[in-house]
Design brief:
- The structure is a single chain.
- The protein is built from 10 helices and no strands.
- The protein is mainly α and 151 residues long.
- It is globular.
- The N terminus and C terminus are likely disordered.
């Protein structure tokens, strides 16, 4: 259930922005969207390549670093995923979704104290994460619902 929920949230258009802005930023956001499409298509290796290419175009791009964490998590590389989420949060300390996902992953690997702290910090930054956790979120167009998270 968690993997499906995270996939829905991640691949549905978080972190990447619109194509007009992507063009202005050299295509990094287009590559980021391509990466999330690859995760949706169960191609995390392709996703990883897209996110890394986006970082080459736009260093310290929190959305692409977050995507790397998402792809690594899908591949079962949990420690590397945590490192990627750490960087995404370093690049954008108010990236609520990255804090929330890192918190869930920390709890999953057994560091519940730190994970709970991340989750609470994410809720403070963006209370809309609470219904996702509770499993009550229903959206017809996730890219519009999460526009404030787009970087």
């Amino acid at each position: 259930m968690r993997a499906f929920l995270l996939f829905f949230v991640l691949a549905s258009a978080l972190s990447c922005g619109n194509d007009e802005v992507a063009f202005e930023r050299g295509g990094a956001q287009v590559l980021c969207r391509k990466g999330f499409d690859s995760i949706r298509d169960d191609k995390p290796d392709d996703a990883l390549a897209s996110f890394r290419q986006a970082l080459l175009m736009r260093p310290k791009y929190a959305g692409a670093q977050y995507g790397i964490g998402s792809a690594l998590e899908e591949m079962g590389e949990l420690e590397q995923a945590l490192e990627a989420y750490d960087l995404a949060i370093e690049y954008d300390p108010e990236f609520a979704l990255a804090l929330w996902v890192r918190g869930l992953l920390l709890n999953e690997v057994g560091d519940e104290g730190e994970g709970d702290d991340d989750i609470e910090a994410a809720y403070e930054l963006d209370p809309r994460l609470r219904p996702i956790e509770a499993g009550t979120l229903v959206v017809s167009n996730p890219s519009r619902r999460y526009e404030p998270w787009l970087h």
